[in-house]
Amino acid sequence: MSAENVERAKDMWLGDFDLTKMVEGGPDAVAAVFPTLRADVKSEFIAQNPEASQSYKGIEGLYEGWREWIEPWSSYSIRMNEMIEAGPHEFVVMGRAEARTSRDAVLMEHRPAAILTLDADGLVTWVRFFLDSDDALRAAGVDRP
Predict the structure, then answer these.
(1) CATH number of the domain enclosing 48
(2) What is the helix (H) or strand (E) element at residue 140, kind and residue range?
């Protein structure tokens, strides 16, 4: 993969994202915020309990997954702050999330991560979301001190 495509992926996936507002904007907002997604992107939301994990297809599917994900939250934002190469076409994007529950406005924080698989043109073909960054690193086969 070219260095240009790697930098393009970093430009698109590192930063602050307000998932609440993005979901309010619908699938078009998701495509606008993440223009490196292929139209047929496969997305998975990996739960600690494998039976609770969900898979989706396409940008509409990714939008639906995020919509379901943030349903119990009045706000949900993520700062994706590090991208680690995990293979020739695979990266782990590490972040920190802050969310407030809808019911009691309790602030929750966690360190999620996503594994991105890119094609030769630098477009994301597969994205796997993890609640815990250590789980994502293990799944991608990345060792960190």
Answers:
(1) 3.10.450.50
(2) helix 133-140
